[in-house]
UniProtKB/TrEMBL annotation:
It comes from Hymenoscyphus albidus. One of its GO terms (molecular function) is oxidoreductase activity. It comes from the Eukaryota. The lineage of its organism: Eukaryota, Fungi, Dikarya, Ascomycota, Pezizomycotina. It holds the Pfam family BBE. InterPro entries: BBE, FAD-bd_PCMH, FAD-bd_PCMH-like_sf, FAD-bd_PCMH_sub2, FAD-linked_Oxidoreductases_BP, Oxid_FAD_bind_N. PROSITE patterns: FAD_PCMH (PS51387). Keywords: Oxidoreductase, Signal. Belongs to the oxygen-dependent FAD-linked oxidoreductase family. This is FAD-binding PCMH-type domain-containing protein. Residues 1-27 form the signal peptide. The keyword Transferase does not apply. The keyword Oxidoreductase applies.
Length: 631
């Protein structure tokens, strides 16, 4: 792709030694401290996106140091040294917090903003229009925020918020780990504070801005967090007193018709760091291929989703989404832009695919292998205990669980919830997802279960439909904005259960009993039958428990909306106790584990639970790539 006129002008400016470095006083459309690098990225087997070609260089940092207006700030934007003694000394040191004596002064923040081209945004919580203490009270905007609070598009997807007409770079999908300090309210006497929101965000439009942000955070010793959409049960894209790198504007998507890396030769998609699951699916469909992704359309694809491994509707045929990643462009903790692939920094490439979000580097783009279009059959239905009683209900649920081996061997996947509402039980299949199946083959597969439900007298009416390809099936099952967010009254935890627990009748009875007792105790259960295995035969940092899993189940406990810190602590203890029977029947090291994107933050032995056999190597690579604790 040819550079635009403005980029070409910038290139000439950056290469000229005669022009002085400007310190901008107003927002600009381009960053003043960037060089336009050549487009080739041979170690990735593809060209760079234009925003990746705009990079900070040593020469430009030196010019910042030499200019009279910026000389005193120059050290804050210098590149780091991953092996320096200074880094070793600073590793693990406490980060500065707003109000601390050494917290950067306003003139330094202004200089940083000017070098960014006006991309620095002081945080204003999304619900601030509902509070007078921010001086922004607006009854109409507040009403819009309240009315749309559970819509994921309000928090995560739209650059300019459609309800308030204001950009919001820092809101997160689930508020409980933000601290619940600025919730939507009609109470005019309430108080809104930043809580776990970052202090500032950088609205990223090119790699040079990411490099400046990393260098500034590292040299100023302030916390750095990374956000695309903020869709995370545990709020990992937030951080009190932090500088946030907001990648949501990096929306480039490109099809590579003939991608060759290692043994792979075929089609691939190159994806910018700001794309979402829905955007990936739609782009793949338009290019005549299928890409792996999750069920929530507002999830940011190239960042936390891939870093967590990426469990997916297509896992029964292709494995995990992280298994499809061939190369990544990234900015490391020293502020350098690198390519991570099998040919360049293969250890970092290994870690970034499943080794945990915001841990090793900031990904600016990824390249994924894609697959042919395949037919899909979906079936949604529900049943409950109202007419048949609790015993028959649980026999019907057990009949489903008993079939997980043939269901997963057939490449299928499900998403379901089991509710206990004051002793009345219900199961909601949302849906049963049968990739590469016709209605006839699907009916043959589920016939034993459906026959058992009918024998038990359980009324249910499956809504089953076949689609010629993936995208229309997904779009109908999960339309835009589906999946409520914004909650602050649920604590999640989960467990990965291995196939071995189904192959051994004694273990299966113990497993199902533990799951059933959790529901009887009043906890909400959700989950999937799926078995990703390592179908692509790759080496990456995906939790090894996923490779033997046959089911992923989530347990949620309720907490009061106005819970005190002590009550939140009690809820944490309750969650750990509630998950303990699951841990005992599916222990770490025996195929059990936990998916870190929807986990209990108090998970004991989290190293093994979240990372399986990979934790020791990941710990070593963390020390190699981020000894200073930038991420």
């Amino acid at each position: 792709m040819a550079p635009s006129k403005s980029l070409f002008i910038l290139f000439l400016w950056a290469r000229s030694l005669l022009l002085p470095l400007p310190l901008l006083a107003q927002s600009q459309s381009i960053i003043p401290v960037a060089s336009l690098l050549p487009p080739d990225s041979p170690n990735a087997g593809a060209t760079l996106f234009e925003y990746e070609r705009l990079q900070l260089t040593e020469e430009l940092v030196q010019r910042v140091r030499e200019q009279e207006k910026t000389a005193k700030y120059g050290s804050f934007f210098a590149f780091g040294d991953l092996d320096s003694p200074k880094a070793m000394l600073k590793n693990g040191s406490c980060k500065l917090f707003p109000g601390d004596k050494s917290w950067p002064k306003e003139d330094l923040w202004d200089a940083f903003d000017n070098l960014l081209g006006g991309a620095l945004i002081p945080t204003t919580p999304i619900a601030a229009p509902c509070y007078k203490n921010w001086g922004l009270y607006d009854s109409e905007k507040c009403a819009a925020v309240i009315a749309n609070w559970t819509n994921p598009y309000l928090h995560t997807l739209i650059l300019v918020n459609p309800y308030t007409n204001e950009a919001d770079p820092t809101s997160v999908a689930f508020q409980i780990f933000q601290g619940r300090t600025c919730l939507p309210t009609s109470n005019l006497n309430g108080t809104c504070t930043l809580g776990g929101y970052p202090a500032y965000a950088v609205n990223i439009s090119n790699v040079a801005q990411i490099q400046l942000a990393v260098n500034f955070a590292r040299n100023a010793n302030i916390r750095l967090v990374i956000k695309n959409t903020g869709h995370c049960y545990l709020g990992k894209s937030g951080g009190a007193g932090a500088l946030s790198v907001w990648t949501h504007s990096l929306k480039d998507i490109e099809l590579i018709d003939d991608y060759k890396v290692g043994e792979y030769e075929g089609k691939a998609l190159k994806l910018g760091a700001g794309v979402t699951v829905r955007e990936v699916y739609l782009a793949a469909h338009r290019h005549g291929v299928t890409a792996l992704g999750g069920i929530c359309d507002t999830v940011g694809y190239a960042g936390g989703y891939i870093a967590g491994g990426g469990h997916t509707l297509l896992s029964g045929i292709y494995g995990m989404a992280a298994d499809q990643v061939m190369a990544l462009e990234a900015v490391t903790a020293d502020g350098k832009k690198i390519t991570a692939s099998q040919m360049s920094h293969p250890d970092l490439c290994w870690a970034l695919r499943g080794g945990g979000g915001s841990t090793f580097a900031i990904v600016t783009s990824i390249i994924i292998r894609v697959h042919p279009k395949l037919p899909v059959t979906l079936s949604s239905f529900s049943f409950n205990s109202t007419l048949v009683g609790k015993e028959a209900f649980w026999l019907g649920v057990r009949a489903y669980f008993e079939l997980f081996i043939p269901f997963t061997d057939a490449g299928t996947y499900s998403y379901f919830w089991i509710y206990n509402t004051n002793g009345t039980y219900s199961m909601d299949m949302k849906p049963f997802w049968a990739l590469n199946h016709t209605i006839a083959s699907f009916n043959d597969l589920v016939q034993p279960w459906f026959q058992k439900l009918s024998h038990l007298g359980i009324p249910f009416t499956p809504a089953t439909k076949s689609y010629p390809e993936f995208w229309p099936a997904f779009d109908e099952a999960w339309p835009p904005g589906s999946g409520a967010v914004g909650g602050w009254t649920t604590r999640p935890g989960n467990r990965l259960f291995p196939r071995a627990n189904w192959e051994d009748p004694v273990k299966f009875n113990q497993t199902f009993s533990a799951i059933q007792e959790s529901s009887k105790s009043g906890y909400r259960l959700g989950g999937y039958h799926q078995t990703p295995r390592n179908r692509a035969h790759v080496s990456n940092a995906v939790n090894t428990a996923w490779r033997t899993a046959i089911s992923f189940l989530i347990l949620g406990i309720n907490v009061a909306g106005d819970a005190t810190p002590a009550e939140m602590g009690a809820a944490s203890a309750e969650l750990e106790d509630a998950l303990e029977p699951w841990r005992r029947i599916a222990p770490n090291g025996e195929g059990g584990g936990s998916y870190l994107n929807e986990a209990d933050i108090g998970e004991p032995d989290w190293q093994s639970a979240f990372y399986g056999e990979n934790y020791p190597r990941l710990r070593e690579l963390k020390d190699k790539w981020d000894l200073e604790g930038v991420f």
